[in-house]
Request: fold
Amino acid sequence: MDHTGSHYVGQRVHGRLEGKGTYTLPTDTKYVGEMKDGMFHGKGTLHFPGGSKYEGTWDCGIAIEGNYTFSDGLKYTDDKWHYCDGYDRRFYTEICSGLKPAGISQLTNLSPPRAIPEGCYDCGDGFYNPQTRVVVDYKLRFLRNADDDEHELIIRTCRKGWDEIVGYTPKE
Reply:
């Protein structure tokens, strides 16, 4: 383990990370692939802790092309992307396995959905606490501080860890 909390197992040239290897970041994200002069270079795959992955070609640490696959197997395409658009709002698991019986709604692509701590939001890569403005991963480890734009986006669009009445409420 180095001073950044990262860990590398693989080939080296003159003490530098070069050749094939596995580079594990402190967040448990792993890069498996080719390295050159200590950088991702050539073919390699980033494996994210939630099970998703990015397979790509790298040039001196920069991804120049690649494909992202979500943890459920759904492959992202940047053109002709039809998943969860205005015409078909089914989750990927519903597309693959069919809809659940009437009365059983699927709130997320996970079934059952992840339990969100009270007062927090599920922002896709972890939980967000709007009081502290901190995002932690699903194992409750620090990921980042949210700026104003991310805070507003999460509050507006993400699933909350509490129930509240929404919509029309008649006056009594």
